[in-house]
Write a structure and sequence with these properties.
It comes from Alexandrium catenella (Red tide dinoflagellate). This is Helicase-associated domain-containing protein. Pfam families: HA. This protein is mainly α. The chain folds into three domains: 93 residues, no CATH class; 64 residues, no CATH class; 61 residues, no CATH class. It is 60% helix and 2% strand. It has a two-stranded antiparallel ribbon with strand order 1-2. A hairpin with a 2-residue loop joins β1 and β2. α11 runs antiparallel to α12. It is elongated.
Length: 253
């Protein structure tokens, strides 16, 4: 409110939850000074700027703030630009994002989802102390972070991420290539001849694991057709196709 008015609050303008903290018998002018000092010393300057944005909206009927636009002598446009930049980079707390959106300030939908993903990834790395996000991981507020991470890898392989987005993902400790699946995760048949076939396939799939998704899909489809029991005459076709089914999600992730 102080930013909205650009002056010290009068006593009747002080929010009730703040006014009750002041002694009942205090002179009004002393109370106003106490509130002002509290706001200036303990308050977040960001809230004052938000008040200036509200004043700009009240005056102009919108929040389309030009880069050098001012309000009460303050360069509001520069502040708005800084907020959007922090928002896009996923560096803004959700409380502040909500308040900006409440003012009518938005990013485009794709940018908002990307910024949300960055913010959640930063929190995940900070609290979990690791960079590998399980595919099924969902945040407390319902954001599918695991799926979002997979989507970013897919977009990167297809050349759909901008250099800026790639830079922001790196800043957020994004892991472009998850660790290779340990050998013990590959289950091979007990039959030596069948295991020879599946181990050869394992080497082939590991080698091609980081090729573009389209190429990997074509290659995997050809392997399925080649080794399917309805087509292959090999006595080990059944165990081979079972192996391929088990590694499909890993290879096509």
């Amino acid at each position: 409110e102080a930013g909205h008015l650009d002056r010290r609050l009068r006593w009747h303008e002080v929010p009730r939850e703040l006014a009750v903290l002041i002694g009942e018998g205090s002179p009004v002018d002393h109370a106003e000074v106490a509130v002002s000092r509290g706001v200036e010393g303990l308050g977040d300057e960001w809230d004052a700027w938000l008040g200036r944005l509200a004043a700009f909206r009240d005056r102009n009927g919108h929040v389309k703030v030009r880069s050098m636009a001012t309000i009460f002598g303050h360069v509001l446009g520069r502040w708005v630009h800084e907020q959007r930049d922090a928002w896009r980079r996923g560096l803004m707390p959700s409380r502040k994002v909500a308040r900006l959106k409440g003012m009518g300030l938005t990013l485009d939908l794709d940018s908002e989802v990307f910024a949300k993903g960055l913010a959640e990834l930063r929190k995940y790395v900070m609290f979990k102390q690791k960079r590998v996000v399980p595919l099924s991981y969902t945040t407390d507020d319902g954001f599918d972070l695991g799926l979002w991470v997979v989507d970013q890898r897919t977009l990167q392989r297809r050349g759909k991420l901008t250099p800026r987005q790639i830079e922001l993902l790196r800043e957020a400790y994004f892991l472009w290539r998850p660790a290779e699946m340990p050998s013990l995760f590959f289950s091979h048949p007990e039959d030596p001849e069948a295991a020879t076939i599946t181990r050869t396939l394992e080497e082939d799939l590991r080698r091609l694991r980081w090729q573009p998704i389209g190429e990997r899909r074509r290659h995997f489809r050809s392997l399925v057709l080649k080794h399917h029991p309805d087509i292959s005459e090999s006595e080990h076709a059944g165990s081979t196709i079972t192996f391929l089914a088990e590694v499909k999600d890993w290879f096509l992730a």
